[in-house]
């Protein structure tokens, strides 16, 4: 039952009936004590008393996802691949990410490419590719540790003047464990002491045999410095993505992963999220890790305010109550669920002997009591 009477709501929220009625009048709803109001109206009321901020904490995104319906094939559309750049220190991960970013003509023309939000998109032959802008294994490992499978393709950067090094091997192992296909970027081929063939030889010792030697590993010799062959590298990314047949349903409430998050002095908690499926909208109520809130604003990788974010699109989200962790799952809580949560939490709190607001009753406990 989605409706609730003013009296029940008053009890659940711990707010006097006359105050609720006053607020409802203010909202243009004439109500009596026994009148039923709908979930949306109750949500608005809850928001008036700032109740939506901390109540979703025991309702995790994972739990919400568990209830989700299956997608049907007709709703699925091709989504951009999400790419992580990995490799040994100083082999050129950051340089490669920067150069790739600058290959995007549209971005360069827009001029707003300095924005760092932890991920960005480029367009190649009319198709988008999403890059996670945090090179290194830490981010990748942190996300995997939280069970988030964010990356579709790993670009393994190996400097042609240095060859396979310990972190190269680590990266190979991470990607293999996550079952993420590897594309090798043999970098720094502009250097006079570059020996790409030696790199290929060393890679075979770790199970990566390049195509020209009869294997299945795609390797592209590149220079992040001069930009040589970056177009070819991106084409290979699109090729591998095509084989993977990456699809998502944009027509449902969004869920995805937090890529990075910080506390911004002026803007409060700011999280860069990557939408896995569905479409995230300004105004959506979301939970992310142990934080929650309403999406107040979204900013894309070019620093532009956007109202929507579809599958594989990274955006900064403003409006969360706390700073979530990289790798946390986020999910939209539709109003009805949030409303029920508000009610449930409030009732639980009232049951407590001390009536303190600091109670931490989980939903499970609550249902046992009822
Ligand atoms: P990261 O530690 O893997 O992120 O490596 P960086 O991108 O910071 O690069 C390390 C160093 O290698 C820097 O001094 C870069 O300028 C240089 N570098 C990166 N890519 C290239 C390249 O393609 N050619 C040359 N000559 N130098 C490069
Ligand atoms: Mg770097």
What does this structure look like?
The protein is of the alpha+beta class and about 375 residues long. It has helices at about 5-15, 15-25, 40-50, 60-65, 95-105, 105-110, 135-145, 165-175, 195-205, 230-245, 335-350, 365-370, and strands spanning about 5, 35, 75-80, 80-85, 120-125, 125-130, 155-160, 180-185, 220, 245-250, 255-265, 270-275, 280, 285-290, 290-300, 305, 310, 315-320, 330. The chain has a six-stranded mixed sheet, sandwiched between helices. A hairpin with a 2-residue loop joins β14 and β15 (about 290-300). α1 (about 5-15) crosses α11 and α3 (about 40-50) crosses α11. The chain is elongated, with a radius of gyration of 25 Å. It binds guanosine-5'-diphosphate and magnesium ion.
Mean pLDDT: 81
Strand content bin? 25-35%
Helix content: 25-40%
Q: State the major sheet.
A: 6 strands, mixed
User: Stretches where pLDDT falls below 50 for ≥5 residues?
Assistant: 52-59, 353-370
Number of helical regions = 12
Q: How many E-type strands?
A: 19
Say which molecules are bound, naming each kind only once: guanosine-5'-diphosphate, magnesium ion
Radius of gyration: 25 Å
Structural class: alpha+beta
Strand order, biggest sheet? Answer: 5-6-4-7-8-9
Alpha carbon gap, first and last residue: 16 Å
Shape: elongated
């Amino acid at each position: 039952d989605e409706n609730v009477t003013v009296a029940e709501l008053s009890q659940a929220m711990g707010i006097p009936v006359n105050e609720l009625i006053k607020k409802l009048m203010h909202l243009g709803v004439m109500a009596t004590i026994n009148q039923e109001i709908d979930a949306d109206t109750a949500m608005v009321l809850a928001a008036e008393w700032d109740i939506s901020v901390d109540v979703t904490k025991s309702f995790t995104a994972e739990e919400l996802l568990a209830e989700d319906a299956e997608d049907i094939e007709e709703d699925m559309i091709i989504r951009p691949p999400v790419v992580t750049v990995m490799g040994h220190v100083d082999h050129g991960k950051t340089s490669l990410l920067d150069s790739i970013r600058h290959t995007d003509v549209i971005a360069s023309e827009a001029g707003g490419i300095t924005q760092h939000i932890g991920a960005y998109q480029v367009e190649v032959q009319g198709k988008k590719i999403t890059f996670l802008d945090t090179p290194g294994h830490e981010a990748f490992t942190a996300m995997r540790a939280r069970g988030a499978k964010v990356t579709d393709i790993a670009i393994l950067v190996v400097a042609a003047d240095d060859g396979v090094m310990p972190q190269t091997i680590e990266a190979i192992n991470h990607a293999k464990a996550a079952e993420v296909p590897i594309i090798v970027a043999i970098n720094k081929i502009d250097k006079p002491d570059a020996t790409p063939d030696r790199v290929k030889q060393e890679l075979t010792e770790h199970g990566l045999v390049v195509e020209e030697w009869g294997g299945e590993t795609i390797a592209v010799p590149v220079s992040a410095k001069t930009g040589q062959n970056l177009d070819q590298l991106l084409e290979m990314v699109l090729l591998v993505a095509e084989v993977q047949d990456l699809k998502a349903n944009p027509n449902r409430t969004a869920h995805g992963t937090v890529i990075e998050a910080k506390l911004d002095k002026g803007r409060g908690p700011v999280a860069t999220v990557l939408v896995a499926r569905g479409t995230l909208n300004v105004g959506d109520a979301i939970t992310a890790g142990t934080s929650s809130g309403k999406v107040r604003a979204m900013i894309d990788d070019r620093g532009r305010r956007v109202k929507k974010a579809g599958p594989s699109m990274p955006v900064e989200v403003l409006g969360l109550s706390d700073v979530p962790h990289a790798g946390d799952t986020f999910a939209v809580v539709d109003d009805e669920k949030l409303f029920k949560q508000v009610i449930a939490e409030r009732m639980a709190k009232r049951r407590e002997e001390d009536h303190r607001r600091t109670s931490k009753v989980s939903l499970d406990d609550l249902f046992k009591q009822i």
